[in-house]
Amino acid sequence: MLDLHGYGWLLFDGLQLTIAVGLCAMVVAVLLGLLGSWGKLADNGWANLAANIYTTVVRGVPELILLLLVYFGTPTLIQSIASSMGYDIRVDINPFIAGTITIGFIYGAFATEVFRGAFQSIPKGQAEASRAIGMQRIQTFKRILLPQAMRFALPGLGNVWMVLIKATALISIIQLDELMRKTKIASNATHEPFTFYLLASFIYLGITLASMMVQKRAETWANKGVTR
Amino acid sequence: MDFSIVWQYLPKLLEGAWVTLWITVVSLAIGLAFAIPLALARLAKHPLVASPAYLFVLYFRGTPLLVQIFLIYYGSGQFRHELTDLGLWGFFRDPWFCGILALVLNTAAYSAEIFRGAITAVPRNDIEAGRACGMSGLLLFRRITLPKAFRIGLPAYGNEVIFLLQATSLVSTITILDLTGISRQLISKTFAVYEFYLTAAAMYLVMTYALVYLFRLWEKRLSGHLQPRVVAEPRT
Q1: Contact A60 B208 (CB under 8 A)
Q2: 8 Å CB contact of A65 and B200
Q3: Does residue B234 lie within any of the structural domains?
Q4: Which pLDDT score is estimated for B229?
Q5: Segments in chain B below pLDDT 50
């Protein structure tokens, strides 16, 4: 029988933190995705440029490098700027915040593409009709465009979430006590790395399978008003 | 900001970039060799063939690559005696072997899924035409299904190649000195944190978009005749 030497609860603590980081990062990613897709579709050259640079750079650089850059690079950059202005300060970033923001920032680029596709698949007449009956732009967005875009974006966002939650494993490298790092602690203490890493991998697999089920339900729910 | 220190260590970084490319190409080549039989096994009618392939793909796509790398590299230590008896411990002690093994299994699972989709997307007519010409079995697969499926799957496979290039940065966590590993080592020596990470990021960016460009060329070469021909608009 599987003997965890009492380290099971440690992994459970880690799992809670993994899910917390994942959900917070997903919120950041969705907000950035909406902003980025606006930037891509806007009639504004600068917004287009900024959004294109964002998605191009983020998708061309490994997550690990971006994570290390934010967590270790930003404090030293701020310190060296401060010292060049004659201040001596010490900046430390909280690993939870660094991890959430970095992961959210990375997957925001993928969410941008998802939302861009979703907004583009709404027929133009929808927005025109709502303007014609006198809705403001913000009302058009809130009442007409966003609800329809969400339905188109749902499959893509589900994929972003599943890649995102797996990417949270990287945060263990910046010393946040999430599932991976707790697994390392447990496997070092018990000298049974295989048992614990296998268990951790099954926990991640469980999250993936649960997410797949939720995604399927959400899609059925979102499409119930649509006939094929 | 002081990038002169980066300039001084540039040869080392380029060496790291070379290691990154090398690991990517080796893992892709071996992974592709596993992916096609795996895709066929996924499509097999017999459940004893299809379900192990399904579980393999599900496991390697459903868990983080970092866990897979640690499971193979650190996890194998738990079976040290058994592996020594089998004469395999020499392999599993080596971070290069473990890193590449994890990448190979991971990319095999993702690519198998891509090629499974591509094989089912091969038009029925093409296969029927092949049969009408008297081909069957392996010959039909080699001449008709596989080339066609490869063409259909190539854009998605190009994305997988780019993901793998970036995923190789994770092997730096098991002491391999690829571009990420070298950067981390140089940073612990020089304390020039963001200078090195920014340079490494730029180098990854260049490698990624070079690969994107190559895959576009390849796609054009394979399916150029299928692209809609651009007809010059008459001048008005």
Answers
A1: yes
A2: yes
A3: no
A4: 64
A5: none
Domains of chain A are: 10-222 (1.10.3720.10)
Q: Which residue ranges of chain A lie beneath pLDDT 50?
A: none
Chain A residues in contact with B74 by the CB 8 A cut-off are 187, 193-194, 197
Q: Which residues of B109-120 are buried (b: 16+ CB within 10 A; e: fewer)?
A: bbbbbbbbebbe
Exposure string of A32-46, with b = 16+ CB inside 10 Å and e = fewer, is: bbbbbbbbbeeeeee
**Domain span at B214:** 4-225
Q: Do B184 and A68 touch (CB under 8 A)?
A: yes
Q: How does pLDDT run across B39-97, given as a tens digit for each residue?
A: 999 999 999 999 999 999 999 999 999 999 999 999 999 998 889 999 889 899 999 99
Residue B232 located in a structural domain: no
The chain A residue lying nearest B171, using CA atoms, is A64
> B66 in a domain, yes or no?
yes
Chain B residues lying within 8 Å of A168, measured CB to CB: 64
What pLDDT was estimated at residue B226?
75
pLDDT for A225: 79
Cα–Cα distance, B11 to B28 (Å, whole number): 26
The structural domain count of chain B equals 1
Say what the pLDDT of residue B156 is: 92
Cβ–Cβ of A194/B1 closer than 8 Å? no
Q: What pLDDT shows up at residue A133? A: 93
Residue B231 in domain? no
Q: What is the CATH number of the domain that holds B61?
A: 1.10.3720.10
Interatomic CA distance for residues B190 and A76, integer angstroms:
13
DSSP of B67-124? HHHHHHHTGGGGGHHHHHHHT-HHHHT-HHHHHHHHHHHHHHHHHHHHHHHHHHTS-H
| Chain B residues lying within 8 Å of A5, measured CB to CB | none
Of A69, A166, A191, the CB nearest to B198: A69
**pLDDT number for residue B235:** 61
Q: Which residue of A has its CA nearest to B191?
A: A76
Quick one: pLDDT at residue B112? 96
Q: Which of B62, B76, B204 sits opposite A65 (nearest CB)?
A: B204
